[in-house]
Write a structure and sequence with these properties.
Strand content: under 5%
Number of strands: 0
Distance between the termini: 109 Å
Shape: elongated
Helix content: 55-70%
Structural class: mainly alpha
Radius of gyration: 26 Å
Length: 211
């Protein structure tokens, strides 16, 4: 008796669950590229119009994406401005955390504190419009990670310099001098020179660290 042929085995379609590792990596890479594309478009608009005139809609048009994409990526306009500052802020932090002295490690604490203020003033003057746009919310501006890094750095240098008292509040007082809006006002409305502001910082440090 001849047996009927065995039925042909048909492969089952693959189950779709979590994406494979290479797919997840591709998704992350695509997301990073899209984010950079949006930031590049925003940077061009800031250079052309000034930060105060850049809207989420304008960035979407410049990047050829929907407005919702920009909002999903950055949350709101303040989030976009802060994202634009990320790269510059990282480079700036690198100079005082691990750069050459006297700004970086290796110099006496007071010298580092003086150099920190001068470098910060120059950094803020370069990116004033972006910082002002990113700091529109008066409470959120004090809680951003970049500012926390500065507070910690100044407090560490004050302790190394042998300063006593409420170090946390002294650090906040010093950083009050390095407020973006204040620097912009002193420069644009009071016509104070960058050199005068830098000299004022050095004098302020001398008074605070005098024991």
């Amino acid at each position: 008796m001849t047996r009927p042929p065995a039925p042909t085995q048909v492969a089952s379609p693959p189950m779709r669950g979590l994406p494979l590792a290479d797919e997840r990596h591709q998704e992350r890479a695509d997301a990073a590229r899209n984010r950079m594309r949006l930031l590049e478009a925003a940077s061009r608009l800031v250079a052309e119009r000034g930060a105060e005139h850049v809207t989420m809609e304008a960035v979407a048009v410049a990047a050829s994406v929907g407005k919702g994409t920009v909002f999903r990526r950055f949350g709101d306009r303040v989030g976009l401005m802060r994202a634009l500052l990320d790269h510059a802020e990282c480079e700036y932090q690198e100079t005082f955390l691990s750069g050459p002295p006297p700004l970086g490690p290796g110099a006496p604490a007071v010298e580092r504190l003086e150099a920190f203020g001068v470098a910060t003033l120059r950094h803020l003057m370069k990116y004033t419009d972006l910082y002002l746009e990113a700091e529109q919310c008066s409470k959120r501006r004090y809680a951003v990670p970049a500012r926390a890094v500065r507070v910690t750095h100044v407090a560490v240098l004050l302790r190394e310099a042998g300063v006593t008292g409420d170090i946390e509040l002294l650090a906040e007082a010093l950083l009050g001098y390095l407020d973006t809006a204040l620097i912009d006002y002193l420069r644009s409305e009071r016509n104070l020179s960058a050199e005068r502001l830098e000299a004022g910082w050095v004098e302020f440090v001398a008074r605070v660290t005098r024991r």
